[in-house]
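User: Second chain of the day. Same drill as before.
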Amino acid sequence: MIKIVIADDHQVVRKGLVFFFQTQEDIEVVYEAANGLEVIQYLEGHPADVVLMDIQMPTMDGIEATKQLREQFPDIKIVMLTSFSDYDTVIPAIQAGANGYQMKDIDPDQLADVIRRVYKGETMIDAKAATQLMTHVTGSPQQEEEKRIHELTRREKDVLKEIMKGRSNKEIANHLFITEKTVKTHLSNIFSKLEVHDRTQAALFGVKYMK
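Assistant: Same format as last time:
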């Protein structure tokens, strides 16, 4: 049996997970905790294999609890189960020593599989969280956005500057001596490369990063 501890300050969440894991022949919930401190106190006197850890909890949050668990119980596996996939949450959790990072909307059967694989030594990171982690490894979000500007061609940058001035497609065409159809093509490329949805977002992007 894989013995797991569930840490979440919402009792409804804990009870739902307990109810599900009762259907799994190889996973046993040995303790429920409302915060990270309760997890540490329990593990000081009882064995467990995996901690399913929420991040935002009172008294001691999941990230601080993970740091302390890593120091006191280096062999235990920790899977963050949270609603947050933003950069400022994912990175501290991974740095704290989490073996897994999953979103709360994960399918229960998939969560059970994550626990089994983490128990065996694998690292299981949700796709959204993995994207944030890769961004951290390759560069900051701001650096990534700055790179998008450099992907624009010279003419696309000219069109973007015209957008920043609030000019219409017809005005841009007249000013740059190109057709309106060409302007629309450049706009489509600009939106795609900058990962924006309209000319207002493109203009704001340009104001922030155009030299």
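Residues 63 and 92 are 7 Å apart (CA to CA).

User: Great, on to the next one.
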